[in-house]
Amino acid sequence: MGTAVAGLDHAAIASALDRLVLWARRGTPVRLSSTSATTLDTLDQDGPSRITLLAHREGVSQPAMTMLVTRLADQGLVDRVHDPADRRAALVSITAEGRRRLAEHRRARTTTLQALVAQLPADHQAALASALDALNALTETALTGREGH
Q1: d(CA 70, CA 65)
Q2: Per-residue pLDDT reduced to its tens digit, 27-85
Q3: CA distance linking residue 97 with residue 89, whole number of Å
Q4: How many structural domains compose the chain?
Q5: Residues 120-141 pLDDT 10s
Q6: What is the C-alpha to C-alpha distance for residues 75 and 123, in angstroms, rounded to an integer?
Q7: Alpha carbon of 141 to those of 18, 75, 81: distances in Å?
Q8: What CATH number does residue 60 fall under?
Q9: Which domain holds residue 39?
Q10: How far is Cα 63 from Cα 142, in angstroms, rounded to an integer?
C-alpha cells in the first residue's frame, strides 16, 4: 500500500474525475450508453458473468441490469446461456457483434480524445502520458479493492 503524498489535493482530483466522467458521457460520440459500454467491456475482459455480478460491478439494481442485458441481447450484442454450474442461473457473454460495437465505440472516443489532447501544450500531454499508470492503478483499486500492480 502506498503512503500519503504531501500536498495531494484529493478534492481537486475527485472534481477533475467528475468532470472527466461528464465529458465521457456527454462530449463523445454516442455509440453505446456508458453502462452498456462498461458492461460489454467487463464481459470482454472477464468473460461470461451472471447478471447479479454485472449489476454489482456496474452499481445498478439486478432488475436494471436484467433490462439492460435484455436490450443488449435484442441488439445481438450479448448472449445468455445456462450456467453449467447452476442450470437455474444464466451467464451473459459478449457476442462478436458486441465486440465490434465496443471497438467502434472506443475508436470514436479515442478520436475525440486525440483531438482534444492535441490542443494541449506539450507539458500537459507529457503529464497525461506519465499519469496513465497511476490512473489505471486507481481504477483497478476502485473496481476490485486491490492495486493492479
Answers
A1: 8
A2: 666 678 888 999 999 999 999 999 999 999 888 999 999 999 999 999 999 999 888 88
A3: 24
A4: 1
A5: 999 999 999 999 999 889 888 8
A6: 43
A7: 17, 32, 30
A8: 1.10.10.10
A9: 11-118
A10: 24
